[in-house]
Write a structure and sequence with these properties.
The chain is of the alpha+beta class. It is elongated and about 75 Å long. Helix 3 (120-143) runs antiparallel to helix 4 (176-203) and helix 6 (245-259) crosses helix 10 (336-351). It has helices at residues 41-54, 84-104, 120-143, 176-203, 220-228, 245-259, 267-276, 280-301, 307-323, 336-351; strands at residues 19-26, 31-37, 57-64, 67-74, 152-155, 162-166, 207-208, 214-216, 240-241, 358-360. The chain is 49% helix and 14% strand. A hairpin with a 6-residue loop joins strand 5 (152-155) and strand 6 (162-166). The termini are far apart.
């Protein structure tokens, strides 16, 4: 070990007022500065992060075997190597959504497994809205020179075939503008895809599925699109259901609403943190109470439908809030245009809400 940092890594003397370094260790994947923080961990990282970012590094504080260390890793906003994990998860999600789609089309996939390919419109619709949402985040991250992964799709053998998709950010956010733009890009891109998929879906013929065990509760956004095109979402004949492509639009709206909850690292948390600064903490404390209250209301007056959904999300938002929100290095306020876009995005989130998303028949 030494007290000199290798290559372009900052010299310890450049941040001695925040972290007192006594040893530096350089390995293939990181530079570790061992020493003593001069204030709380969050303040130290915020103080040194701009210096490391300018030199091409991300930095974090770790506690290793009784020693504190600032760990600097080289930043890379590009794609390093072939994204094997992303591709495997995507292909797995294609299979699970094809299987899920076969149920919406009334196909007996267990008896005729090869017929699941007939559900490809469902798969394209669902993965399309989810993929566009996450690519919105990815493009905004690249624009602001923030390190982010390609989307990871999450397969799950349910009626939707997936738990959604995520990207992973392992970088510091330079300012509120970048936090806002990255947070808002996903929902707006996803909503654009939702409108297109829904518009296509409602113009396609309904499918005959007989006694299907689930009905969708359509949010105002989906209902407005169907009404604007003069199309139906619900049919007098109980054996008919809207074309499964519409389910892709429903997924887009439902995912948008959940992501826009103003809590922690959710998109809504990023947007509201960027718009209102530290006041975000007060706002996010109201969210779990609202979700628990919605569950109680449905239990008392809504035949118990969707109660468990909102109770689970009440606990999830408590957990997300405890995990904390993203903290930009520059906390300067946003301009009027971004505030207006943020308000519009949150309004679209409200239009994507329905208290009973799924009705068990």
């Amino acid at each position: 070990m030494s007290e000199t940092a290798p290559g372009d890594a900052p010299h310890p003397s450049h941040f001695a007022d925040a972290f007192d370094v006594y040893e530096v260790e350089s390995t293939a994947d990181a530079v570790r500065y061992y020493g003593e923080p001069r204030s709380d961990h969050e303040s130290v990282v915020r103080a040194v992060a701009p210096l490391f970012r300018d030199r091409g590094y991300t930095v974090s504080m770790e506690h290793e075997l009784g020693e504190y260390a600032l760990v600097a890793r080289e930043r890379s906003v590009g794609i390093d190597g072939f994204p094997t994990t992303n591709v495997i998860l995507f292909l797995a999600t294609v299979l699970t959504t094809l299987f899920a789609g076969s149920q919406w089309y009334g196909i007996d996939a267990l008896s005729y497994p090869a017929r699941i390919v007939e559900a490809w419109p469902f798969t394209v619709a669902v993965l399309g809205v989810l993929g566009v949402h996450e690519l919105g985040h990815y493009v905004a991250s690249r624009y602001h020179d923030v390190q982010a992964s390609l989307p990871y799709f999450l397969p799950l053998p349910t009626l939707l075939g997936t738990m959604g998709a995520v990207i992973r950010m392992n970088d510091t956010l330079p300012d509120r503008k970048s936090l806002f733009d990255i947070g808002v890009a996903g929902p707006l891109a996803g909503l654009g895809a939702t409108v297109i998929v829904t518009a296509v879906g409602v113009t396609l013929p309904p499918v005959e599925v007989g006694a299907f065990p689930v009905q969708l509760g359509y949010p105002p956004l989906i209902q407005l699109i169907a009404a604007a095109l003069g199309e139906q979402l619900v049919y007098a004949d109980a054996s008919l259901m809207a074309n499964p492509v519409v389910v892709g639009g429903w997924v887009g709206a439902f995912v948008t609403f959940l992501n826009l909850l103003p809590v922690g690292q959710l998109d809504g948390g990023h947007i509201v943190r960027a718009m209102f600064g530290r006041a975000h903490g007060t706002i996010q404390r109201l969210v779990p109470a609202a979700l628990f209250g919605l569950g109680a209301y449905l239990y008392a007056f809504g035949d118990g439908q969707s109660v468990s959904l909102w109770v689970v999300w009440g606990f999830l938002t408590l957990f997300f809030a405890r995990m904390g929100s993203a903290e930009p290095l520059d906390d300067s306020a946003l301009g009027t245009l971004r505030l207006a876009i943020g308000g519009l995005t949150l309004l679209l989130g409200v239009l994507s809400f329905t208290p009973v998303p799924l009705v068990l028949t």
